[in-house]
Design goal:
The protein is an alpha+beta fold. The protein is 43% helix and 23% strand. It contains four helices and five strands; from the N terminus they run E-E-H-E-E-E-H-H-H.
């Protein structure tokens, strides 16, 4: 089993949650994250018949997976600390690195000077 850090949210980014899932591959990690979120929040979410990655509840709210990050074994303890699964001090460099990766992808799709500037700032911070 491999560790994956998953960022998901329900209908709006304000509800974002990061969870750590152990699975055999990314596809299994995605499904496990959706199932765990639906079970823990008891909000009636279920997978659509057409796509197992599209979940919705009777109120019309949708459950999304924003990002999936495979966690290198050397980073696992830092991720656990970040999620509160460990008593060690919080570190945000792993989270910034993941968000930086997302920003680079978004920048390729929709170039934006502000995003480019924030990418440069994040890269400088991580050095």
């Amino acid at each position: 089993m491999l560790p994956f850090l998953i960022l998901l949210f329900c209908s709006s980014p304000e509800t974002a949650r990061m969870i750590l899932i152990y699975a055999t591959d990314e596809s299994a990690a995605r499904l496990q994250a959706l199932e765990d979120f639906a079970r823990l929040n008891d909000s009636g979410f279920a997978a659509s018949a057409q796509d197992p990655y599209e979940w919705e509840n009777p109120h019309g709210e949708q459950l999304f997976i924003e990002s999936v990050y495979p966690v290198p074994s050397g980073d696992l303890s830092a991720i656990r600390r970040m999620l509160g699964d460990d008593d060690a001090p919080y570190t945000d460099k792993h989270l910034i690195a993941g968000l930086l990766e997302d920003s680079r992808r978004i920048q390729m799709i929709e170039p934006n000077a502000g995003t480019l500037s924030r990418i440069a700032q994040a890269e400088q911070y991580l050095q």
